[in-house]
Amino acid sequence: MSLRTRILVGLACLSVAAAIGLFFWSDKEPQYKGRTVTEWTYVYAAARLDGDQLGAQEAEYAIKQIGTNGIPAILACISQEKGRSQEPSFMTKIPLMGDWILDARQKREDKAFAAENFFHLLGSQCTSAIPQLSRIVDTSTDVDVRHRAITSLLSIGDEALPIFARFIGEPEHPARLLAVGLLSIRFYSKGLTNGVHLIPHLSSLSTNANTQVAAKAVRALAILAPNPQIAVSIALNAFQSTNEQMRVAAVYAFGDLGQKQYVERALSAPETRVRETATNTLRMMDEKTENE
């Protein structure tokens, strides 16, 4: 048997082994109407992206039928790191097979991100996943994996918030900046009401020497603080800063807190970016008032 033939046979065996492994892994996942839970979360994400409302509704119904039985498979999917690909790199250079491997790898990554939707849809039903998601945040070296785990925790809701006190309270925690950043985004943090555990840490971070961290802490406080007076006071201090990023964060915080008078004050700021932020924030506040 020639060397070329032996290589091709070996590659074929690897492909078969991978297919068999995928079959048995998929077989372990809970299913609904012939699709596994991770397939349904992928379908849901794709349907939402394509504007397919009926497809998204069907996938949502399927995911809710599977329920919390899907947690182990979803956690395994979320924790997949890019660096753990099992295919030798030279295989991606082979015509046809290389394309198949790269497509399969991309789909795995897409499915891993789509798996977050499971927690978005089931929310507080998934509190049993909090310890494992926390371990993923603590131990993973892949920023995408940490991102998925943190957003999943935020989707679970208030019962997951106390764990964030450790993420952002430990100066050397590898996910500290990422956690503060995601807390500062209303898309992820809206509806959360149990932020009292985080106020001391976020207040401290609002004066951090790293202005990127400090600015995100100011915005997170505006969303999470149970006492608006604390958040307003910290936002006012941030607006007195000479750092443009801090002043922009303060304007956004004023908007989140409904402090229109302070946003209007920012319209006369010397920095173009601060003025533009104030203009856009006022427009959004007015639109919100009209829709209420």
Give the SSE map.
Blueprint (H helix, E strand, L loop, with lengths): L2 H26 L2 E2 L2 E2 H14 L2 H14 L4 H8 L18 H18 L1 H7 L7 H10 L3 H14 L7 H6 L6 H8 L2 H4 L9 H7 L5 H14 L3 H12 L4 H13 L3 H6 L6 H20 L1
Q: What is the helix tally?
A: 17
Determine the N-to-C terminus distance.
76 Å
List SSEs in N-to-C order: HEEHHHHHHHHHHHHHHHH
Q: How many runs of DSSP E, i.e. beta strands?
A: 2
Radius of gyration: 23 Å
Strand order of the largest sheet: 1-2
Question: Structurally, how many domains make up the residues?
Answer: 2
What's the story with the biggest beta sheet? 2 strands, antiparallel
Measured as a percent range, the helix fraction is 55-70%
Bulk shape: globular
Task: Walk me through the structure.
There is one protein chain. It contains 17 helices and 2 strands. The protein is mainly α and 292 residues long. The protein has 2 domains: 31-84 and 102-156, no CATH class; 193-292, Leucine-rich Repeat Variant. It has a two-stranded antiparallel ribbon with strand order 1-2. β1 and β2 (35-36) form a beta hairpin. α15 runs parallel beside α17 (272-291). The chain is globular, with a radius of gyration of 23 Å. Residues 6-26 and 84-105 have low confidence and may be disordered.
In a nutshell, what does this entry contain?
With 292 residues, this protein is mostly helical. It contains 17 helices and 2 strands. It has 2 domains: 31-84 and 102-156, no CATH class; 193-292, Leucine-rich Repeat Variant (Alpha Horseshoe).
